[in-house]
Write a structure and sequence with these properties.
This protein is mainly alpha-helical. Helices cover about 45% and strands about 5% of the residues. The chain has a five-stranded antiparallel β-sheet with strand order 4-6-7-3-5. Strand 6 and strand 7 (about 325-330) form a beta hairpin. The longest helix has 17 residues, at about 185-200. The radius of gyration is 22 Å and the shape is globular. The two termini are about 45 Å apart. The structure holds calcium ion. Calcium ion binds near residues 232, 239, 240 and 244.
Length: about 425
């Protein structure tokens, strides 16, 4: 559901550009610099609808594009009076065209995201939320089977407990994206769903404020996910996921429940990986039982036992053999549906553990490893491709395909094939 000023396009709920979407910046960075004008440049995606001339033409046609959505709105039982009221005077915000195609020069390391998102301040903030809304959490846990710590962690990671959620009117953002740029069909549904929210009176326009991609409220619902999951838990007739803690908590729980959350089960475990481990097993498609993982020499960190050995998990090693491993259970997949950025999803699980009273992760991260710049990530991909290790079109995003190519390259030169793209690997490729 994440909105915000995403680094590489929105990783919002239902808006994953790819399974390896980069974490958004909204809940990490303080308020970004004041809104700027559109640069007037073509988008870096190279998409025909992101050409500057196409953006200008679509912007000139904005009013008739919005009016053209009236029949669709009518089918959703939105009245003409509401349609006129909420769309009159609406103009496109073209600055969003820069954001949808933004390519960050620098990204943070995986561990930097965890440091920021699971800071002592966020843990303290979460404890306040838990205490303040204890009665609601008691009722919600009973009714939905989703524990209070994960909901609070989503609240904390997505918006720093409602303090960093974006400041753009959702109707304007989604109307812009529905009429201009490369994701118009997707955002038509978001725009119409936002209109439905306003027409029904669940939220007022001044509450429907969020990220450039249209995610709003402390747990960053997209308009379509609001439609699927929002509930009126305090019984006032409105599903107010922005200002009513009861509605917000229950709606987020309902979302996780409908996405397959297994009650009374955790998201996953930090694990210790033995020397000589076959890193080719560290792949989202390789689901083994905890018993089978133990057979490969994997142990739970901190010397604890796994509570249920028949559970299936996949292994994530964000920093290869230089950092901790994580065995991810079904509930982690549910968190990934909520936020498809791995660093964010892990931060949600980790923050929940810390709020529950759990200890920090045991193993160290390779903090000495510099983060590759965009140019370096592209160069890495080009060099891998040239050597016959296919990463796809070099785009600077190190996803599963690039990770697999790095592994194959590592294997070919006798290194541990852990898929971790470091400066050392780049240096070897340059030789
Ligand atoms: Ca309500």
């Amino acid at each position: 559901m994440l909105g915000g000023a995403f680094l590489l396009g929105a990783a919002a709920h239902g808006f994953a550009q790819s399974a390896q979407a980069q974490p958004p910046a909204a809940a990490v960075a303080p308020t970004p610099s004041p809104p700027k004008e559109w640069t007037g440049e073509s988008g870096s995606s190279g998409h025909p609808q992101m050409q500057a001339s196409a953006i200008r033409a679509a912007a000139a046609n904005f009013e008739s594009c919005v009016e053209g959505m009236w029949p669709l709105a009518q089918k959703r039982n939105i009245s003409r009076a509401s349609f006129d009221k909420f769309t009159s005077g609406l103009t496109p915000e073209l600055r969003i065209m820069d954001l949808i195609d933004a390519q960050p020069e620098f990204t943070k390391a995986f561990w930097d995201y965890l440091d920021i998102l699971v800071s002592e301040a966020r843990i303290a903030g979460g404890r306040e939320i838990l205490a303040k809304h204890k009665a609601v959490f008691d009722k919600v846990e009973k009714q939905y089977g989703v524990d209070r710590y994960i909901i609070t962690a989503i609240w904390g990671v997505e918006s720093n407990y409602g303090t960093l959620g974006g400041d753009r009117p959702v109707l304007r953002s989604t109307a812009t994206l529905a009429c201009v740029g490369r994701r118009q069909a997707y955002f038509r549904d978001e725009f119409l769903s936002a209109l439905e929210i306003l027409h029904r009176g669940d939220l007022k326009p001044e509450q429907l404020i969020g990220s450039w991609a249209g995610a709003f409220g402390p747990t960053q619902f997209m308009p379509t996910s609001f439609k699927r999951y929002a509930v009126d838990f305090d019984g006032d007739g409105r599903r107010d996921v922005v200002s009513s803690a009861a509605d917000l908590i229950a709606s987020t729980a309902n979302n996780l429940k409908k996405d397959g959350w297994i009650p009374a089960e955790t998201w996953g475990y930090e694990v210790v990986i033995p020397k000589g481990f076959n890193y080719l097993l560290a792949d989202r498609s390789k689901q083994l039982t905890l018993t089978e993982w133990q057979g490969h020499g994997i142990k739970r960190a901190g010397g604890k036992a796994f509570p249920q050995l028949n559970e299936k998990a996949y292994l994530l090693v964000p920093a290869g053999n230089q950092g901790p491993g994580f065995l991810m259970l079904q509930n982690f997949r549910v968190i990934m549906k909520y936020n498809p950025a791995e660093a964010y999803a892990l931060a949600i699980g980790y923050l929940a553990d810390r709020l529950r009273g759990g200890e920090p992760f045991v193993q160290a991260w390779p903090r000495h490893e510099p983060v590759l710049t965009l140019a370096e990530r592209r160069e890495l991909q080009e060099l891998l491709n040239r050597k016959g290790f296919d990463t796809g079109e070099p785009n600077g995003r190190l996803g599963p395909k690039s990770r697999a190519a790095v592994r194959d390259f590592q294997q070919s030169i006798g290194l541990v094939p852990d898929g971790f793209a470091t400066a050392t690997i780049l240096a070897r490729l340059r030789r």
